[in-house]
Structure formats: structure tokens, C-alpha cells
């Protein structure tokens, strides 16, 4: 989608520190990390919010979780623990309207979240 930041990252038009990429999924470092590990996992396909996920996207969404776990293992935080977050719409703090999982870890995660 034109003018979508994460579509531009997915197509290489905007630079990001990419740590995983396949045909459908990309993982890259968040530009403003909130934890020692803060990686974003996105589908290359544009989906604006979690409310726009269709049945046909089920395997793709599953891949986001699978790849997030793979990145957590590679970064050595899998056993300690990590958090996967997906914000939807303004009150949850969504700022980029292309779905993404935040993979957060490397420090203690508080609950309830802020
Ligand atoms: P949201 O607020 O939508 O849940 O998450 C968007 C995330 O994208 C934020 O954590 C923000 O720091 C990150 N972000 C915003 N612009 C860029 C950018 O240009 N490059 C990268 N790598 N991350 C970005
Ligand atoms: Zn997009």
C-alpha cells in the first residue's frame, strides 16, 4: 500500500535493520526500542489492523508467531521469557497501521501493562 511505512520497509524503499525475511514475513529492529530486545514482525502483505485479518490470512498470522519465537530463540531470550504485543487502534497506542507483533524481552516485563 502506498504511503504505508511498513510496506515501504517490506519492499526495501525505507531502510530497516532486517533480521529475518522470507516470502511472506519480515522481522526488523524497532527504531525506538523499549527493551533490550525489541523486534517487529510483520506480514509483507498490507493488513491495516488486527480487525482486518481475513480467514485466508490465518496461515500468515500463524507465521508471525512462529517467526517471533524463532527470533526470540536466536536472541537468547526464549527460556527467560518475552512478550508479544499487537496494538489495535488509538486507545491501544497503534501508530503504524500495518499489523505487527512487537517482540519484547531482555528485561522483566511488568503486568498489567501501562
Ligand atoms: P505501534 O505504535 O503501531 O504499536 O508500533 C509501531 C512501532 O514502529 C513503534 O514501536 C515505533 O518505534 C516503530 N517505528 C516507527 N517508525 C519506524 C521506522 O521508521 N523504522 C522502524 N524500524 N521502526 C519504526
Ligand atoms: Zn502496509
Automatic annotation (TrEMBL):
The active site is at 100 (tele-amp-histidine intermediate). PANTHER family: HISTIDINE TRIAD HIT PROTEIN. InterPro entries: Histidine_triad_CS, Histidine_triad_HIT, HIT-like, HIT-like_sf. GO terms for molecular function: catalytic activity. This is Uncharacterized HIT-like protein aq_141. Residues 5-114 form the HIT domain. A motif (Histidine triad motif) lies at residues 98-102.
Amino acid at each position: 500500500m502506498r504511503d504505508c511505512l511498513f510496506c515501504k520497509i517490506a519492499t526495501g524503499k525505507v531502510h530497516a535493520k532486517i533480521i529475518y525475511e522470507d516470502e511472506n514475513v519480515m522481522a526488523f529492529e524497532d527504531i525506538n526500542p523499549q527493551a533490550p530486545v525489541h523486534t517487529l514482525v510483520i506480514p509483507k502483505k498490507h493488513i491495516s489492523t488486527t480487525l482486518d485479518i481475513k480467514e485466508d490470512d490465518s496461515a500468515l498470522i500463524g507465521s508471525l508467531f512462529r517467526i517471533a519465537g524463532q527470533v526470540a530463540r536466536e536472541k537468547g531470550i526464549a527460556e527467560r521469557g518475552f512478550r508479544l504485543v499487537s496494538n489495535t487502534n488509538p486507545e491501544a497506542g497503534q501508530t503504524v497501521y500495518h499489523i505487527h507483533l512487537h517482540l519484547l524481552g531482555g528485561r522483566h516485563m511488568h503486568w498489567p501493562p501501562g
